[in-house]
UniProtKB/TrEMBL annotation:
Assigned protein family: Belongs to the SMC family.
Binding positions for ATP per the UniProt entry: P35, N36, G37, S38, G39, K40, S41, N42
Pfam families xref list: SMC_hinge (PF06470), SMC_N (PF02463)
Protein name in UniProt: Chromosome partition protein Smc
Entry function: Required for chromosome condensation and partitioning.
GO aspect biological process, one term: sister chromatid cohesion
InterPro entries linked to this entry: P-loop_NTPase, RecF/RecN/SMC_N, SMC, SMC_hinge, SMC_hinge_sf, SMC_prok
Subcellular location: Cytoplasm
Amino acid sequence: MSTVYLKQIDILGFKSFADKTQMILSPGITAIVGPNGSGKSNIADALRWVLGEQSVRNLRGSKMEDVIFAGSELRKATNFCEVSITLDNTDHHLPVTFEEVTITRRAFRSGESEYWINRQPCRLKDIHELFMDTGLGREAYSIIGQGKIEEMLSTRPEDRRGPFEDAAGIVKFKHRRKEAERKLEETAANLVRVDDILAELEAQLGPLAEARRIAERYQALSDEIEEMEIALLVVEIDRLHERYVQLKNQVAREEAARNEAQARMRQGEEAWEARRQALAEATARLESLQQQYVEVVEARQKAEGSLALAEERLAALAQRAEDRRRRREELARDLAELDAAMEAVARAEAEAAAALGERQHLLADARQRADDARRFELADEIDRLSGELIDANHRAAMLRNEWKTLEEKLQAGATRHERFEEEAARIRAERDRIEAEKQARAERVEQTRRELEELERQLAALEAERERAAAEEAQAVSAWHRLQADVQGLSSRLELLRDLEAGYDGYAHGVRMVLQQARRGALKGVCGSVAELIRVDRTYELAVETALGGALQNVVVETEQDAMDAIRLLKARQGGRATFIPLDVVRSRRMEEGLVSRAAKEPGFLGLASDLVSFEERFRHAIEHLLGNVVIAQDLERASRIARTLNHRFRVVTLEGDVIAPGGLMTGGHVNRKGPGLLGRQREREDLEGKLKALEAERARLSARQKELRARVVELGRERDRLEAERAVRLGRLKQFDDEDRQSDFQLKTLTERMEALDWERETLAADRSQIERRQAEVRDLLAEAEAEVARITAAIADRRDRLAALESELAEAKERLTGLRIEVATLEQERENLAQRMSELRERKDRLERAYVEMRQEQARDDAEAARLAAVRESERAGALRLAEELDALEQALAAARQARQELEAEARELEDEVRRKRRIAEEQEAALQRALVAVERADADLSHALAKMGEQFGMTYEWAKERYPLQGTVAETERRLESLRRERASLGDVNLGAIEEHERLSERVRFLTEQRDDLVAAREQLEQLIDEIDHEMAERFMETFQQIRAEFGKAFHSLFQGGEADLVLTNPEDPLTTGIEVVAKPPGKKLQNLNLLSGGERALTAMALLFAILRVRPVPFCVLDEVEAALDEANVARFAHELRLLAADTQFIVITHRRGTMEEADALYGVTMPERGVSSLVSVRLSDEIDYETA
């Protein structure tokens, strides 16, 4: 998929968009909505117009001026309009180097138009060529205007080719065909002119025929000599090629050995990496086990805490049961005492009742015996007083009984208060002890937390340091490998350069022999070549090489005799030729300082060549002899001014290698440097040696750093394990402290509740005591009054009795008896009532005690149930703690095994790392051997290339051509003898009129040139005709291939949109793909095959959409604009249309102008077009959540 997409549209003054309007677009589907007449379709027109549309009709206007804003009721018309589109071209799908391409078109009311590409003026043709065969452009299928979708079906079959040709990518071929036809016409006209000129020249060649015959004989001999020289050179090339092939085979063997060594090295590295991965997994396993260990420790501590808490609560329940038991015993004693008291009261009550019955019977008898008036009067008074006495005694008895009861209550309350005080003191002591323990534990918790925080900080810092060390180690390993590759590359290149220098590659044969013999000691006094003796900055390298030319290979010797010895050796061994510079005779040639000063004043003067190179002082005369009269200039223009300043007496060379020779001759042009020259090779070798030395040092540093980091990572891992173990211990302590705190809190809560109950009971007891004491005081006063009243009444009764005794002495005994009986009866009745009251009080108290006893039993039952539950919890936690202890033992063993496994893997990894280093050294040695073989191959290739170059430069032909046409006739010796004979024969011809030959050659050359021109024109005509045929063939193939693809996709798209049916594309003239029309055949579901004109509007629209979608599937375009193409569809078809758009949006950006909700719902972004001012459109961005309904607009 192409990533080209439309990023932005800028519109100013185009149709209804009077103000500057900008749309920011993204890949996917962008919907443009708005009421009818708001100007939505003007956006599609703007896009079509900026892409180069020239048809006013396609822009929905009558003249081009109609695209410029014509004004409104409130605005004036604008004088121009401008539209720009910006496309993302990061993948350079468009044939330009820009990552963003902005196309701008501007039109003025005067009729002028301007076009720009990325703010640079251009032609309309440039825009057409930019978008050619991209699916974009004025006639492409990327913009389907309002109501235009059906035109794909309405046009003639021949007119439907446009989208197919654009999709097939043959538009540019059509343009090339037109260009070829134009050139073909020009070629025919040129051919007629050349034939006329040739006829005239051929008439002039007749007089020069004889002179040409002699020249041709001479040329024939020369050609034969050349053929023999070529044949001999072919034999030499064959020999060199055989040597080259042998060396190539050696390279192949060395390369195979190198590959095998590298394969072993890679296997070792893979094994090392596998161990490192296993080590990482073992480390992860160890960390997991450590985490499990910490979790199990925490779980065990939690279980132990729960166990301790359960035991503590069981102990508390046991203590409460013991307290309750004591209270039950007290209640039982109280109940027993109450039962005894009640039993005594019942006996006393029965005795009082029996006595009362007896006294009442005696009283009745006494009343009968004492029955006279005075007796009755006194008796009544005595009875009255006796009644008062009885009442007084009754009150006194009641008060005494109440006093006794109050005293008993006070004594019981004092006992209970004493018991409550003892229990409260015990609770306070226990609570103080627990609070003290909590305070001490809080301090230990705080200390442990600080220790844990410090451990966490150390762990975080340690882990961060370990990660940094591991990352740095990985970076060091990666850097080491990169550095190793650089070292190998530089070493190979350096070895190649050294071999080239050692073999004096690039030197002439004679120079090479002299230098090699001097190295072997066969020649004395040889200092070296000029190239070896000087050093040049890279900036001046090309200039100095050009200035010296072949003199770079001049050999500097100590004396003239040394030079002659070297020349004699070359002659003796037929080793070629060389130029020598004897230091004892050579003289410096340096430009006068005055001239140098004049030249230095000119811009671009860089210096004398001899001053821009470095050398040993003893070679100064030799170097200044060669370079002392050469000026180095910045460029050719400045060199020309410097040469004029020096009156063209000296050579001036530019940094680019252009030369102005003495006398004004100029040499220049492009210098094709495929590699460094002799000077550059030497400089490059020295640079490489410095770089290699630095890289070797860096590699050693990285290797040491890698080992240091590996050891640091291992050390940090061990330290982390230690800290993790300490952290687990601290966490266990905190868990234990937390459990102890919860247990203490439970104990404190229990004690507090008990203390609150005691406080309430003590408050109740104190209130009861106060009330009892107040009642005692009241009873004391009332009892004194009652006793005084009893005494008074008793005295009155005694008085009455004395008076009665004087009156009835005889009846004294009876009266006294009667009175006594009455008193006894009253006393017994009062005593019986008191006993009944006492019995009632005793029953009430017994009921209270029995209820308290029942409540205690219920509380004890609940506590027993809680104790049973806690006992079960205790057993469960005890079993869990045992199980966790077993798990801890297993985890400790697993941790020990994991640590041992990690240590073994670390040892194995180190061994494998050492093995990898050894294999890497072997691979490097094999690589070096391969490089040496490659150097030998390159040297043989250089010799072979030199021979081949000689074939091309001296004879102007290739080796293959020469070998095929110039076979060696006979042996090499015979050929050499024949060559010498021919040379003598050619010499026997004497002087040859070379002027005649030259004239004849000139005319012949002219004729040949024109003939060649004619042949070229004929060939060009044939090539153009062939090109047209090839273009036609290519267009036909592309068209047919694309047509078949679109045809297949059309059927699928039609079936998808119609949910059935059939559709096809048929060529009207399959024999001529370049002109054939295209028929569209459609059969909707449930209908017969019928003419397209008989389909409904919706069916025609869906069919056209299917065709458009088929073309887009075969040839996606960067973006596609659809203007209300689904207007004629119902909701179901709109949904299918939108679904197809979503599928195509993966490859094509869609800008859809629509009214339909189904299309809007599928959009990734919405823009709304409104007309807040009559005649002026405005663009707003719409949120996808907004409710928009323009269907009724």
